[in-house]
Every structure is written in C-alpha cells, then in structure tokens.
Amino acid sequence: MNEPIHDRGYQLLFSNPILFRQLLESFVKAPWVAQLDFDSCEKLNKSFISKEYEKRESDLIYKIRWREQTAYIVILVEFQSTVQRFMAIRIWRYLAEFYTDWIETHQPSRHEKLPPVFPIMLYNGDSKWTAPDNIADLIENNEQLGEFALQFKYLKIVENEFSVEQLLAIGNIVSTLFLAETHYDFDKLLDEFIRLFKQEDRTAISLFINWFKQLALRGRIIPSDYQACEQLYYDEQEVSMLITALRKDRESLFQQGIQQGEWNNKINTARVLLAEGLDIPMIIKATQLPLEEIERLQHPNAH
C-alpha cells in the first residue's frame, strides 16, 4: 500500500476523539500537550481550505480547554504525493482565515486577545518531505528585517519518517495506521489488530479495522463507505473471522492478478506471432489461446 490515500478517510478517522488524542500524545513532543483537557475536546464543523486545494488536502479543527482557556488544534492532512514547497504560506493563510472568522463570530471585547491555535500538517505520501516548516526560510533576507521579519512555523508529522520499530514501540491505533500507510506488511498488521482489539476502545479500534477493511478491498475510502466503518466488533472471534476473510480475499486478488498477467502475456505473444506471419494453429499451440481470441486479434475491427 505505497500510494497515499487520496480521499477523506483520514477526516473520518481523526474525527474520533481517541485517535485525535493518540495523535497528539504520541507524535507532538511538546509539554503543553499534557495540559490539554481531552475530555472537553469538540470537533468544529468548519473548514478554511480554499477551493484550489480542496482536492489536495482535508482539515479538522478541534476546540479544547488548555490551562483554563480555550485553544484550537488544526490538523491539515496533505494527501497529494508531491511535496508542496510553499506549505508554510498555505497554513499561514489558513490561520488568517480562521482568525478572521473567529473575530466575526465572537466579536471580542476591546481588551480580549485571540485564542491560541496550534497547526499540524499530517503528510502520508511516499516522497521525502523537503518543504520548509518555517515561513522565514522561504523569504530572501528575511532575517535582515530584524524585529519586523516574518516568523511562522507549523508542526509537520511525516509518516514515512518513522521506522517500523518506532511505530511498533508506540503500539497504538494511530501508529498502526502509519504502519499500514508506509511499511505495509499485511500479516504483521493483522496481528496488530488482534493485539489492539484487546486493549483499545471498541469504537475506536472498530473504526480503524473497518477503515482498513475498506482500504484492503477497494483501495480507498469513499463517503458511501463511511457508514460501513461504524460497525462495532464485540469479541476477538469476530475480528479473527474478519482477518481470515481479508487474508482469503487478498490471496484471491493476488491469484487473479497472476492470472490476468498470464493472460496479458499470452495476448502480447499472439500479437507478435501474428505480426511475424505464423499460421493460426501454431499460434494456438504456442499460446494456448482459443481460436476466437486469435481471430479477434487478427481482425480487431470485425468485433
């Protein structure tokens, strides 16, 4: 599964408060994370992604209590495989849109300050992330402006920067998600599902298992699959049965792929032999293709 997931599946996953908490506690190395009141977190039904980037990324905004005040966590999921050099500009503009909306909605008093917002960029592509995470690094001679120099930095979580060992050591749903995306090992993942099912929240792990099931069978998660992802699993036997079914489906798809590849090879061989003028009985003997298929290749416009 080397291709990134070009859909809104991550939005579904991280709308679960447990997965949201695991993302922050496991992958955001900052002391203030321990001070967040995760019981108060609330996902906002808003988005500030401009239309030009709607097909490249999705976003989630969480409102949460932090040190007796309200704070916001913004997660932007970048699911385009190519690295966006000016991502810092895009996130900077996103936050400007967020604050503009907040001011219009809340009408703060004269002395009231804006709430803190923490921006996270989550990238699940194959390419190494090389874009600067500080806007200052994109501006020529920015430092020479002194106190007027522009400074803005976002936190990047790049899935392919974590090794298998690191992700297995973390050992939660989010780390297993990253494992599925970047170090795809079907058997190892299925073993992890059983382990996680014994220790994680049933709703959260069921969501992840169903997400993976849809991904394994269809290659992507589309909105019509979202309801299927809500199915809950209540015992280990159910999960084991699902895993067995997935293994069989995977083996079946693999065999179909082999058979399709063999068929394509026979077709290509027949085309070459026809071009060389070999007679049809000899081509049938060489390729084991039926006569009708040879005739179709010989006279493609007749069918």
If you had to describe this structure to a student in words, what would you say it looks like?
This protein has 303 residues and is α/β, with parallel strands linked by helices. The protein has 10 helices and 5 strands; from the N terminus they run H-H-E-E-E-H-E-E-H-H-H-H-H-H-H. The protein has 2 domains: 9-234, no CATH class; 251-302, no CATH class. 46% of the residues lie in helices and 13% in strands. A 5-stranded mixed beta sheet has the order 1-2-3-4-5, with helices on one face. Residues 1-6 and 253-258 have low confidence and may be disordered.
Distance between the termini: 38 Å
Question: How many domains is the backbone divided into?
Answer: 2
Percent range for helical residues? 40-55%
Give me the strand/helix succession. HHEEEHEEHHHHHHH
- Count the beta strands: 5
Content of β-strand:
5-15%
What is the overall shape?
extended
Which strands sit side by side, in order, in the main sheet? Answer: 1-2-3-4-5
Structural class: alpha/beta
Rg, alpha carbons: 26 Å
Unreliable stretches: 1-6, 253-258
Structure annotation, total helices? 10
pLDDT averaged residue by residue: 81
Q: What kind of sheet is the major sheet?
A: 5 strands, mixed
Annotation keywords:
about 45% helix; alpha/beta; 10 helices; 2 domains; extended; about 300 residues; 5 strands; five-stranded mixed beta sheet
